[in-house]
Amino acid sequence: MWILVAISSYFLLSVTAITDKFLLKGSMPSPKIYAFYSGFSGILILFLIPFGFYIPNFSGIILAVLAGLFQVLGIVVLYIGLKKFEASRIVSSIGGLSPIFTFLLTYIFSGFRVILPFSVYLALSLLVVGSFLISWTKNQRITWQSLKISAIAAFLFSLYLTLSKLVFLEQTFLNGLIWMRIGAFLSVLFFLFSKDVRQEIFHKREAFRLKTLSIFGLNSLAGAGAGIIQSLAITMANIAYIPIIAALSGTQYVFLLFLSLVLSLKFPKILKEEISRDTIIKKIIAILFIGGGLALLTF
After folding, report:
1. Could you count the other beta carbons within 10 Å of the beta carbon of residue 204?
2. Which residue in 87, 181, 289, 290 has the fewest CB atoms around it within 10 Å?
3. Per-residue confidence (pLDDT) for residue 153, from 0 to 100
4. Could you tell me the pLDDT band of residue 286, with boundaries at 50, 70 and 90?
5. How high is the pLDDT of residue 180?
6. Pick from 223, 270, 260, 264: which is nearest to 34 by CA?
């Protein structure tokens, strides 16, 4: 059941990734500013306080705040990558690296006691390979710069996923979610030390055009929904399977691929996707790898 929940979150994340690319190429050019608004809007979850909020022990607060911090940092690096490179290349590279980092982190945090059946390791491998293959093209291979940015973002997101599971092991789902959003909110406040961010918020306000604000608002809702659904999957799964949730981000790229191919016809300057015969064949092979991994997990 948690597999379907995780895949649902990645579908929503693919939609937000496409919208992020559109906004970052358009009237909201700064990754720091975009991350600030994204993290700031997350504080709206405080409206859920009457439904199950309490103050956990000190270690619980620290874990939740750190989880929120690493998520925000991951988002900043992700947005930098989306601004510089193709959305498909960055997202898929993160999808390939994140499960590896997450596996190592969960192995460490569980006291080196993570033991899974061989079929699960095989499924994890297929998902990772599929995520990498799906980003490879003949003329535009993954560059060192894009891989470096993807690796940093993947490690930060892996820290977020692992710490999230530790938070949910100690706290209720709703309370842990609220405290992590508080951590994210406190993290983005440090962006106010950036001169560019202060000028944008208090003086220029270019990002507050009505059309941009409407798109950003809807995208934030979709992103928040994806985050809640992903957190639910993390809560449902055993800590040993958190790397699988990270590996399932390969399904996000499958969704992203089809959305990009369709929307690139309308926005070719913003959403560039190579649509050659060789590329399509390679994408299909990659999707088969991802499908094989899902099949092993399911059956």
Report:
1. 12
2. 289
3. 92
4. confident
5. 92
6. 223
Count of CB atoms situated within 10 Å of the CB of 143:
12
Question: In the numeric block, which tokens belong to residue 182?
Answer: 């508080």
Contacts 24+ apart (CB under 8 A), 227-232: 227/9, 228/177, 229/5, 229/6, 229/8, 229/9, 229/12, 230/6, 230/9, 230/10, 230/13, 231/164, 231/168, 231/173, 231/176, 231/177, 231/180, 232/5, 232/173
Tokens of 250: 């390969």
Q: Which two tokens stand for residue 272?
A: 């560039």
What is the maximum alpha-carbon separation in the chain?
Answer: 57
Residues 206 and 95: their CA atoms lie apart, in Å, by: 32
Residues in the chain: 299
pTM of the complete model: 0.81
Task: Please check whether residue 32 is in contact with residue 217, taking contact to mean a CB–CB distance below 8 angstroms.
Answer: no
What is the residue-averaged pLDDT of the chain? 79
Q: How far is CA 157 from the centre of its chain?
A: 7
Q: Are 217 and 158 in contact, with CB atoms under 8 Å apart?
A: no
Secondary structure (DSSP) of 139-191: S-PPPHHHHHHHHHHHHHHHHHHHHHHHHHHHS-HHHHHHHHHHHHHHHHHGG
d(CA 125, CA 117): 13
Distance CA 43, CA 34 (A): 15
Look at residue 286 and give its three-state secondary structure: helix
pLDDT at 18 over 70: yes
- pLDDT recorded at residue 156: 95
Angstrom distance (rounded) from CA 237 to CA 116: 13
